[in-house]
Amino acid sequence: MDSRWGGARSVSRGMLPLLALHAASEYYRLPWKPPVTAGLLAVNTLVYLRPAFLDSILPSIDEVLFNPHLILKHKDLKRFFLSPFYHLGESHLVYNMMSLLWKGIQLETSMGSTEFASMVATLLAMSQGITLLLAKSLYLFFDYERAYYSEYAAGFSGVLFAMKVVLNSQSENYTNVHGLIVPSRHAAWAELILIQMFVPGVSFLGHLGGILAGILYLRLKRLYAGVDPLTVIIRGVTGALSWPLRLIKQIIPLRRRRISGRGTVGGNGNYTGRTMSYVWRCQACTYDNPGWLNVCEMCGTSRGDNGWPSRQVIHRSPDLSAEELRRRRIERFG
């Protein structure tokens, strides 16, 4: 969360193509693509770029900057909930999105998309709420109005600090925080201190609120072992929205089972097309081979009379040991 604000910003897009390239390369190498992380990246970037089809819908940045005084005085929930998705400059956006990409992929892959989405929503509300409470407390008890109670801030970094706490909570390893080697569990605290020392204009309370939100979230998760209500709601909504897609997926495989071509259904199994869906199972090693092979790809046994297409389970022949299967495999493929 950045507290620097000086009115209108100039949009320079020199770093955004690098962000897009990095995100695309990361997702390309993943066998499963985390959708919630991708959605958060897209939302933050689109809010910053403000394309024509969103410009009339999105409030301006000066209407949503996080300001404890204005939030409490006018009950302005826009500033409370929307300020994390607004960024004050291109470098601010790119740095936060790079961090979100790395943390989001790890957390969503391990937790699942539904629980991850619930966690992000919870951490956002908790980090904003704790930051608001800290600012109000400092104003009431120490008269820190100008420093914290009236400052303007925006950015996703409060949520990112909370995610860092959750991600590193069970780690026993060490990590590098801007050149400083610290235990991973304390990385968020080290980054908070280093950023305050060397990066001017950042929101101390915003980052501190994120760390405290992550700690509180973990404590609540330990106390409540069941599925949280927000996860249940998100799961129900996504289930309802994805019902038509599931129905289509159930219908399509039935159509794909219809065989067309030159093969003889129920005949002698001598299928010649490589596109046929039939396989034949080797009696020696039970390996399923494509219909266009006449020799078992696993053990080298000839197809012989065992060329019937089959998908039923046949027990492994006791005549061939695992070592014999390995030897035949080596002989066949050199």
Written overview of the protein:
Its main location: membrane. GO terms for molecular function: serine-type endopeptidase activity; zinc ion binding. This protein has 334 residues and is mainly alpha-helical. The protein has helices at residues 16-29, 35-49, 52-55, 61-64, 68-74, 77-82, 90-111, 113-142, 145-149, 157-167, 187-198, 204-223, 229-241, 243-256, 322-333, and strands at residues 174-177, 180-183, 279-281, 288-290. The protein has 2 domains: 16-237, Rhomboid-like (Rhomboid-like fold, Up-down Bundle), CATH 1.20.1540.10; 265-334, no CATH class. It is built from 15 helices and 4 strands. Strands 1-2 form a two-stranded antiparallel ribbon. A two-stranded antiparallel sheet has the order 3-4. Helix 7 (90-111) runs parallel beside helix 10 (157-167), helix 10 (157-167) crosses helix 12 (204-223) and helix 11 runs antiparallel to helix 12 (204-223). The longest helix has 30 residues, at 113-142. Residues 254-277 and 305-318 have low confidence and may be disordered.
Number of strands: 4
Helix content, binned percent: 55-70%
What's the gyration radius in Å?
Answer: 29 Å
What proportion strand?
A: under 5%
What's the level 1 CATH class of the largest domain? Mainly Alpha
What number of domains? 2
What profile does the largest beta sheet have? Answer: 2 strands, antiparallel
CATH superfamily of the largest domain: Rhomboid-like
The averaged pLDDT comes out at 80
Number of helices: 15
Task: Give the terminus-to-terminus CA distance.
Answer: 59 Å
CATH topology term of the largest domain:
Rhomboid-like fold
- Low-pLDDT sequence parts: 254-277, 305-318
The SSE string, one letter per element, is HHHHHHHHHHEEHHHHEEH
